[in-house]
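TOKENISE THE FOLD
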Amino acid sequence: MLVVDPDGRLPTQAFFTTDLNMAPARVVELFVQRWSLEVTFEEVRRHLGVETQRQWNDLAIARTTPMLMALFSLVCLMVYRWRERWDTLPRSAAWYLKSQATFSDCLALVRRTIWAEENDANSPPEGEMVLMSSKRLDRLLEQLAATA
């Protein structure tokens, strides 16, 4: 099947199928459905390390890939559950404005939320104390979460 943009803004694309009875609209629909799956794999690869050099052994791939995919799902579910914190998403820079959050934004939100919890309950009382304003601590946690 050949798809042509009547305005000429998009390049002409060909789509193929082995099912000769499939309707053209169904061919395009199936192609579009693949996009979310491909994006998921790319995000897991980029941010969680699937298919990295450390994972080129078949046993390592079989052992870690399902866990990393589960971690991806867990991060997405946590961000969905924390909908009230979405005002901090997406993270944009002056040179790159985003209208929607990416997985890296979601991962940063999860890190930031976990790190902001009371994690010092078991810290020894005799340690050196450093006083920091809550605003400065928030800014520090934001930067760490985004770059970790």
Notes: The radius of gyration is 22 Å. The chain is about 50% helix and 5% strand.
